[in-house]
Amino acid sequence: MNDVQDATSPGAALGGPVACVSKVELRVACKALLDRDTLNKSDPCVILMVQNQGQWTELDRTEVIKSNLHPVFAKVFTLDYYFEEAQKLRFEVYDIHGTHSIGTRDDDFLGGVECTLGQVHAEEISGNNGYVELFFCAKKLDDKDLFSKSDPFLEIYRINDDGTEQLVHRTEVIKNNLNPVWEPFKVSLISLCSCDEDRKLKCLVWDYDSRGKHDFIGEFYATFREMQKIGGGSKVTWDCMNPKYKLKKKNYKNSGVVILSDLKLHRVYSFLDYIMGGCQIHFTVAIDFTASNGDPRNSCSLHYINPYQPNEYLKALIAVGEICQDYDRLSDLFFPPNKQVSHDFAINFNPEDDECEEIQGVVEAYQNCLPKIQLYGPTNVSPIISRIAKLSAGEETIKDASRYHILLILTDGVVTDMADTREAIVRASYQPLSIIIVGVGNADFTDMQILDGDDGVLRSPKGEPVLRDIVQFVPFRDFKTASPAALAKCVLAEVPNQVVEYYSHKAICPMPPSYCPSLVLSEEPVN
């Protein structure tokens, strides 16, 4: 095993109270394998097995490399990395004798090794900003065959910080052709150059031999920065050089020319790209004022205002709101219901201006509201979801990434309009909106897990699936003894991915970086 790379930024996703998950890319090579063949050398293939609950299962396998005891495989294994787990891996190497299933009785087992993912050599990568599609061809390559023309293929190696070389891509073989046009291929910038445009790439051109004794045609060095010079109809070319010929032949020019005829850069944007581009996170809070909470004047009520300790509603509100306020100048609030059994009314009783200044304004509005309302029922959540979804739908007319919505719902029990709520969430999944639901109190919230979608795709009563997973549900009691930061980290963990997922689906790029006062103030106070 010779390389593991972080393929995604931490913080992507993940359901329930979980840690961040990274994806890693793993490449393998072998040296001095056993030779099981009589006339030729072994034709090796590596199978990667992962252990799950004590059972080994196949994750993936490499290509077969013909007649080679020191194979460097082009196949890239991709798997999730969990820092908190000892992830056991097993690599099994076979000498393949046919085109049927690998690892059968017809194939020779050459050996295997077990290790943990943490034991594999890793190169730290900071960031992931997309992938590139490359179009290579060549002209006038040297002819290495006696009765036909060369069968060329191209290999690209990344030169690591420690001087080692890592295979990035191996093209297909073009038979009997000195002017090959290889199929375009896609590779992440992490794999290609570790997101370093000036990192050297070693490129080798070979004449394929079915016995594995490929003839060397030539080599050249490149960087991703050089590749990006393509454009305006111009192409990037390199002389394919054979060092031995250069020393021996007086008038040697090259062994052909390799041409990059096209390059397509596919940028993958991050949450921070959108935030630094001026995307505002519009934060709305909905608090459950149903009768099941108890009379706020009674100390047993979930809405009881204790002068010495905030209630669970306030704890959850402050924990999440203090994070969101850094990305939103104002916080909106709607609370169901009031004396007219309204399922969404402004907490400050001003429907024309229902916004509050930062999280402290929200807290004050909540405390001032309690003596003026009568708790009632039922617990209907769909009206507030539909209202905010309609509000966020208006952002679609702007056609830029300027505003995204988060709806925080604090409730003490299972909603009574579950079917309508599922329908509302499916509709809302098409809008720039994420929904966080925190269950307050000791009720049985089992049914609420359905809305989260972590155990399967949430569907409307008619069977229509959500476009995106936009709901995160957690019971507050799971964080009673934890710090407020733990609750905020859990419920907000999925939001960055949901923001990126929405704008990616709409093919909306971040706006150019802009001055963002709330971000500057949160990092470096201004005197």
> pLDDT below 50 for ≥5 consecutive residues: which ranges?
2-21, 122-127, 329-349, 514-527
Main structural class = alpha+beta
Radius of gyration over C-alpha positions, nearest whole angstrom: 30 Å
Q: What's the number of domains?
A: 3
Number of helices: 12
Give the amount of beta strand, in percent. Answer: 25-35%
CATH fold descriptor of the largest domain: Rossmann fold
CATH homologous superfamily assignment of the largest domain: von Willebrand factor, type A domain
**Mean pLDDT metric:** 80
CATH class of the largest domain: Alpha Beta
Shape: elongated
InterPro entries: C2_dom (IPR000008), C2_domain_sf (IPR035892), C2B_Copine (IPR037768), Copine (IPR045052), Copine_C (IPR010734), VWF_A (IPR002035), vWFA_dom_sf (IPR036465)
Family: Belongs to the copine family.
GO molecular function, one term: calcium-dependent phospholipid binding
Protein name: Copine 7
Describe it for me?
With 527 residues, this protein is of the alpha+beta class. The protein has three domains: 22-124, C2 domain (Immunoglobulin-like), CATH 2.60.40; 131-266, C2 domain (Immunoglobulin-like, Sandwich), CATH 2.60.40; 279-506, Rossmann fold (3-Layer(aba) Sandwich), CATH 3.40.50. Helices cover 19% and strands 27% of the residues. The chain has helices at residues 189-193, 224-227, 243-248, 271-276, 312-324, 358-369, 382-393, 418-428, 449-452, 484-492, 495-505, 517-523; strands at residues 3-6, 22-27, 44-52, 55-61, 77-81, 88-95, 108-116, 131-139, 152-159, 165-170, 185-188, 201-207, 215-222, 236-239, 257-266, 280-287, 330-335, 345-346, 355-357, 403-411, 433-439, 471-475. A hairpin with a 2-residue loop joins strand 3 and strand 4. Helix 5 crosses helix 10 (484-492). The longest helix has 13 residues, at 312-324.
